[in-house]
Structures are given as structure tokens and as C-alpha cells.
Write a structure and sequence with these properties.
- By secondary structure, the protein is of the alpha/beta class.
- The chain has two domains: 5-90, Rossmann fold, CATH 3.40.50; 96-157, no CATH class.
- The chain contains seven helices and seven strands.
Length: 163
């Protein structure tokens, strides 16, 4: 299957972070200017995700792949569900492919000793396994937020996934 790579416009950055949770490359714009967003999408061969119909039309004229979500669709679960369905994204076992929500970098396993002093001691004492972004150093663990991620993914897919 062809890897899907996206550029989310400034209105859809939350969607971009959720795509990264699914392990999908979702770049954020280097600039808020529409012309520069189009240049970035074209230069990097990215599919532009936008709610801006004018921007979508401009992208189409420039032969840039674009998917325009309805402007009225503001619910993140609806947006994510639409993108997953439109592009046939694999959401099963997403936890094995997650990317850093901050920068999109690859996550690598880290032990408690690797993260001591970089996260609160109370967190480090309650968990053994962590993920660390190889690019920016952001640290993740399966805490309360993990349950919320799984619940949301279950609603999006209509079933429980990635327990």
C-alpha cells in the first residue's frame, strides 16, 4: 500500500496530531500564507487537507492532491473518520506505528532510567516503559491519556481497537 503523506492547513492542526497518532505522516505548514502552503505541498508531494474551499480549488488548479473537508465539520472525530475512510488508512494496531504528535518523528522505546529527570518523578515511578521521540526528545507513556486515545479510536472506527 502506498504511504500517504499529508500537509494539514492551519485550521486542521489537531487533525494532524491525530493522524500522527495513527502513524501517518502529517506535516504542519511552514507558513500560514496560502501560497506558501501550496508551495510546500507541491514541493514535498503532500496531500493537502483543508477546510478552506478556495485553497482547495487553488490546489486543484496546481495539480496538488487535496482533500477538502466540509467547512461545517469541526468535530475532530468526524474529520479523522472522513480522512481514514477517504484514504483507506490502516488504524489497526496504530499504537505500533505512532509518531510524535509534536514533530512527527519516530518513537523509540525507552526505559525508566532513560527518562529520569525529564518527566515528573511521580510519573516515572508508576511506569516502566516509555516512548521517546528520536527527533525532538518528547516523552510518552501509557497513562490516563492512553485510555482516552483508545476510546476515541474505538468511536471513530465503530469498535474498540488497540486495547
Amino acid at each position: 500500500m502506498e504511504e500517504r503523506k499529508f500537509l494539514v492547513d492551519v485550521m486542521l492542526q489537531k487533525l494532524g496530531r491525530w493522524l500522527r497518532i495513527l502513524g501517518v505522516r502529517a506535516d504542519m505548514p511552514e507558513d500560514e500564507d496560502d501560497t506558501k502552503i501550496l508551495e510546500q505541498a507541491g514541493r514535498d508531494g503532500l496531500i493537502l487537507l483543508t477546510r478552506d474551499q478556495e485553497l482547495a480549488e487553488r490546489a486543484g488548479k496546481l495539480k496538488i492532491k487535496v482533500f477538502a473537508l466540509p467547512k461545517s465539520e469541526t468535530d475532530i472525530e468526524d474529520q479523522l473518520r472522513d480522512v481514514v475512510r477517504e484514504f483507506g488508512l490502516d488504524v489497526e494496531r496504530f499504537e505500533d506505528r505512532m509518531l510524535c504528535t509534536k514533530c512527527g518523528g519516530k518513537l523509540v522505546l525507552a526505559g525508566r532510567e532513560d527518562v529520569l529527570g525529564k518527566i515528573p518523578d511521580t510519573i516515572a515511578s508508576r511506569h516502566d516503559d516509555f516512548l521517546r521521540c528520536a527527533s525532538c526528545g518528547q516523552i510518552y507513556w501509557k497513562g490516563r491519556q492512553w485510555k482516552k486515545i483508545n476510546e476515541r479510536m474505538g468511536r471513530i472506527m465503530g469498535k474498540e481497537v488497540g486495547k
